[in-house]
Write a structure and sequence with these properties.
The chain is of the alpha/beta class and 337 residues long. Helices cover 47% and strands 13% of the residues.
Length: 337
């Protein structure tokens, strides 16, 4: 496949964007060449991450978010990068975009791309950042990145998104798990989906109590009828730092999304007024640079060492003849041409 014409991507031509995504995801030289041309035209989109444990209804929430954006008076173009679990047989995504986002089919202002996680820690494939850049350069104003819901490794999403939405649901026993995973630390907005189910009040209360411990506020904003609570969205932006709101929604019925859209808008305003937008962009690009450096160094090392040397070192480790640390030294030395 020839290198996709960058000008066609800038014009948002759907076929060109699709080809560009394939080239970038494959990690081919053509993909890297294309990203070289696209990169100066990125950095304009609002990147929204959606993460949380399996079973919380992330895909339904994303579907409703996209529908809401597209029904606005001046609808933005919206792209979705859905990072799916990898099939152990084919290596491809187990869930396809046609399955998860059938309601969005036929809308020329929406582009949904499913991709396999390929075992990437935290559910984010290495190529995700590249796909986001293609959509950004193609003029998509809102880019939603949904992770596979791998559990305690979901914090990777925070390094990529401007606004991170963490989705919880009642009855899953995830409140303490969230603290263990560091999920609350990365949340810009906390959503309790399926809030019409039994136990939703308990989940809301538990999350707000946990949030009050990690984001202490003045006493008058901390307690309401004896229960700790996160502030409402307007209250949150009065402070010098963002306090994540905790919002109940029922995604299947489309309930609670007016408040969620308000929270996303408020958070975007906070990021830009506080300078945090630029800070997060710098942090994201630094992380991408380090990830690429690590990836390239490993590729270079693998290209300079014979499989026999690696297998011999591995065999010695398995038989307890040498330590893994010594094996690394041997492999690094053997990898030099």
């Amino acid at each position: 496949m020839p290198v996709t014409d960058p000008e066609a991507v800038f014009r948002g031509e759907r076929l060109a964007v699709s080809r560009a995504l394939t080239q970038v995801e494959s990690g081919s030289p053509d993909g890297y060449e294309l990203l070289e041309a696209l990169f100066p035209h990125t950095g304009r989109a609002h990147l929204i991450g959606v993460t949380g444990a399996p079973g919380t209804g992330k895909s339904t929430l994303v579907n409703q978010l996209v529908l809401g954006y597209r029904q606005a008076p001046s609808p933005p173009r919206v792209a979705v990068v859905a990072v799916d679990p990898t099939s152990p047989f084919s290596g491809g995504a187990l869930l396809g975009d046609r399955v998860r986002m059938s309601d969005l089919a036929g809308d020329p202002g929406v582009f949904v791309r499913s991709m396999a996680s390929r075992g990437s820690l935290g559910g984010l494939a290495v190529a995700t950042a590249g796909l986001v850049k293609v959509f950004d350069a193609a003029g998509y104003q809102i880019i939603i990145i949904e992770t596979v819901g791998a559990g305690q490794a979901e914090v990777d999403i925070a390094s990529l998104a401007h606004t991170t939405i963490v989705v919880e649901a009642p009855g899953l026993g995830d409140e303490i798990q969230s603290i263990k995973a560091g999920i609350l630390e990365i949340a810009d907005i906390l959503v309790v989906n399926k809030s019409d189910k039994p136990g939703a009040d308990h989940t809301l209360r538990a999350l707000r109590n946990m949030l009050s411990l990690s984001h202490p506020l003045p006493d008058e904003n901390l307690h309401h009828e004896g229960v700790s609570a996160a502030p409402s969205v307007p209250e949150a932006v009065k402070f010098s730092r963002w306090i994540p709101p905790v919002l109940p929604i029922t995604a299947t019925a489309g309930e609670g999304f007016q408040e969620l859209f308000g929270a996303i808008e408020e958070h975007q305003e906070y990021l830009k007024s506080s300078g945090e937008w630029e800070t997060r962009d710098k942090r994201r690009l630094k992380g991408e640079l380090e990830d690429l450096l690590q990836h390239r160094l490993r590729e270079r090392w693998e290209g300079g060492i014979s499989p026999a040397v690696y297998q011999a070192a591995l065999k010695q480790v398995i038989e307890r003849e040498i330590t893994p640390w010594r094996a690394v030294d041997i492999l690094l030395e053997g990898g030099e041409k």
